[in-house]
What we know:
Structural class: alpha/beta
Oligomer: single chain
Largest sheet: 3 strands, parallel
Order of helices and strands: HEHEHE
Strand order of the largest sheet: 2-1-3
Shape: elongated
Radius of gyration: 22 Å
Amino acid sequence: xxxxNMKTRYWLPIVSLSVxxxxxxxxxxxxxxxxxxxxxxxxxxxxxxxxxNESVVRVLADxxxxxxxxxxxxxxxxxxxxxxxxxxxLASGSPPDIVAVDxx
Length: 104
């Protein structure tokens, strides 16, 4: 009886994790391309940043925009509202393409 219990203890977490991973993989949303590969034109990327980073981010985005066909559109959010705004964008299914995140 103890041998069966040891086998169950060993395999149960592995099987449970495998089932969980399969369920999560089934929930994945397929990626759809709006244009065939190779035929896409210039793209405008959205970037979210805090107001405390605005001066640096604007300089970098402007430098990028001057030298690339693809453009960066910067959205500046007050630091106190950043987490809420970013979370809302994620939850609504329309997150920014680029996020300036500092964890310090």
